[in-house]
Design brief:
Blueprint: E1 7-18, H1 24-28, H2 34-41, E2 43-52, E3 55-64, H3 67-78, E4 84-92, E5 95-101, H4 103-110, E6 119-126
Antiparallel strand pairs: 1-2, 1-4, 2-3, 3-6, 4-5
Length: 134
């Protein structure tokens, strides 16, 4: 068969987040720039993780928004630990090819509609958590 049908599957996974802060060495060493500051202040990483098809996977998405919205979102996340969110998996030929964190699910879990205004700027399907790469 030349073409196989793409399937989508919804699962619920726990999640964590990161909001990068500049490192003291960057501030002291003069490596800290305005552009980097904009990235730090206007972005948040959200990682859904768990067993997907028998393997531990980490679905990491990086989002941007206005700094005030990011601050409010971080507060919502701090107040809602140990929750799960919907992740939509894209499967082709029986293999996991892509994912999407459902921002509507995240807004519902954290009771904050501002999650829906986040703009996706990067993502990765990983074998390790972002915490392991620091």
């Amino acid at each position: 068969m030349l073409f196989s049908k793409t399937e989508y599957k919804e699962i619920f996974l726990p999640f964590k987040y990161e909001r990068e802060e500049p490192k003291i060495s960057e501030l002291q060493g003069g490596k800290y720039s305005y552009a980097k500051d904009e990235i730090y202040r206007g972005s948040i990483g959200i990682e859904a993780y768990g067993n997907i098809f028998g393997e531990n996977k980490y679905c990491y998405s990086l989002y941007s928004a206005d700094e005030k919205i990011i601050d409010e979102i971080v507060n919502s996340l701090k107040n809602n630990p140990d929750k799960t969110i919907k992740v939509i998996l894209k499967i082709k030929k029986g293999k996991l090819k892509d994912f999407k964190i459902d921002l509507g699910s995240l807004a519902e879990v954290c009771n904050n509609e501002k999650f829906k205004s986040l703009e996706l700027i990067g993502w990765g399907l990983n074998d390790k958590s972002f915490e392991d790469s620091k």
